[in-house]
Each structure stands twice: as C-alpha cells, then as structure tokens.
Amino acid sequence: MTRAIYPGSFDPVTLGHLDIIRRASKTVSELIVGVLNNGGKTPLFTIEERVEMLKEVTKDLPNVKVMSFSGLLVDFAKHTDSNLVVRGLRAISDFDYELQMAQTNRKMNADVDTMFLATSLEYAYLSSTTVKEVAFCDGNISEFVPEPVVEKVQEKVRLARQKAGKE
Fold this sequence. Notes:
The protein is an alpha/beta fold.
C-alpha cells in the first residue's frame, strides 16, 4: 500500500490544487492532503476552515483524507506512516524550490521520496495568492476555485474590509 501526502497551505484551495489531488489519488492507495499550519504566515482562512473546505471538495474521492499539521513534513510523514510526498509544479521556478525541499526531506528521512506532477496547462498560472488578489479587487474567482469555495472567499474579503474599516 502506498500512502502519500500532498502538503500545502491551501489558503484557499484552488482548482489547480484539486486537479493535483484528483490525479495523485489515482496513483496511490491513500492520499493525505496535509494542510500546513504555518505560524510564519497570516492566512485568510483558519486551519479548521481550510481543512473543512478541502474535505468538502474531496468528498467524492474515497481514498483522500484531509489532516492538518505543523512542523516538519518528514515528521508528519512518519506520524502518518507515509513514504511519498506529492508536489505540483507550475513552472521552472517551482521546480528549483521543490527540488531543494525534496532533497532536504530525503536527507532528513531517507524513506521519504517526492513525486512531482506537472500542473495541467489550464491551471499553470494559478495560485492561492492570485485568487486572493483577484478577490480583494472584486474580480470573478469562479474559474479559479471550486464552486463551494467562491462564496467563502468573498465572505472573508468582506470581513477583512470591515475589519480594516473600508466597508
């Protein structure tokens, strides 16, 4: 049985993320979507909200499990008895960073390997940062995120504006 982890912030989950999840889930016995709780960043969504969004958009994938984690990915891999990390690549710049991370992870735990999936061309430009920027400029994000996520992003943008006193 091959258990893999697809780690990320998923703030918010995009159609590009979902594409990688769907494709990776076809190649492994179990795919754990690991939602990183990164104390160094200020996400738009809480860790619990990101986990719930991912559970909602992957509910039709029986071998996909969504979990949050913090700390080192290799420690999470050991905790979940996973030996494979899945990463999506949009561009050469992604590969440079992801290769360094894969090599670092392998150095820390020789049992953890990394599998790279090239992002489908229709999502090669897409990132969570882009989605948030478009949303904060009142742009249409329906072609960037799964349908259940659109309203959640718009609500978070509205709340952020209220908090900043801009609405």
